[in-house]
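Morning, I've got a small favour to ask if you have a moment. You're getting the sequence in one-letter code plus the fold written as tokens. Thanks so much in advance, here it is:

===
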Amino acid sequence: MARMARAAALVAALALTAQAPAVAQTYPDRTIKIVVPQPPGGGFDTVGRILAEKLTPLLGQTVLVENRVGAGTRVGTEAAAKASADGYTLLLGALSNMALNAGLYTDLPYDPIKDFTPIGMAVTWSYTLVARKDLPQKDLKELIAYARDNPEKVTYASAGKGSGQHLAMAATAQLAGVKLTHVAYRGAQAAYQDVLGGRVDLFFDISSTARSQVDAGTVRALAVSSKDRQAMHPDVPSVMETGVAPLDMESWFGLFAPAATPAPILERLRAEFAKVVAMPEVAALFDKTGGRVMKLSVAETDALVKSEVERWTKLITEAGLRGGG
């Protein structure tokens, strides 16, 4: 029986191998969707829609964004992991759902390394810590001093527990030795409504969406999460520069496919993706929001994801941080 089972498995594998060239010749012959595990309006959505728009003519089929929201990026990411590995369902993966979640959740319903294979990296951003306009404290050092004397009185928003916004502020607070109150929302737009309304004090948002609010004067920028200052906020110090906490954090975004996707399909997707990130207009779009295009090979992308999973799992565990429901 065991010998028959092995023979059947071999026949099935050979059949799939024989079908691969034919699949590659006809792919794609219908709409492709990019699963974005956050609502419209945030950094995830911005990247997803730029990639979808530019890939559509290159692939000769419509590429759509599907916003699958819930559980701090886990719902959409799990859905993509369990989708058919046929090249028609892709995932917008980022620091939050591919690396941070691995450390935040012991029961993560997907494995960012085993369940996905990279198509390529697109862009990376810092986070910008913004405050409501009427916050009494003038800078981050003064705010942290107040928070130290008034535990849990300072509030901060995020796009959901386990999101990059959540961890950026939680890590800063933990490293600074203060206790803040976390208020989770379903996406960046909802969070901004309460920050602009003065109902929440802080929001450590991805710089791509924070920039428009800062430039409009609706919020005040206190710091950036990257080690160095950002060109779009030349007068805003990094958290590390203020001496408040040794934070060095940037959020990268890339396109991923389910791990079992046939090699010929991956080759097509990677070739077209490389053309997109090489477009001057794409670099200009990201540059306007403070993003930096990432031109990495597949091997470099794979190595980056693995190293980030390892680094952040260690940092999150040491900080005693855990995601919520």
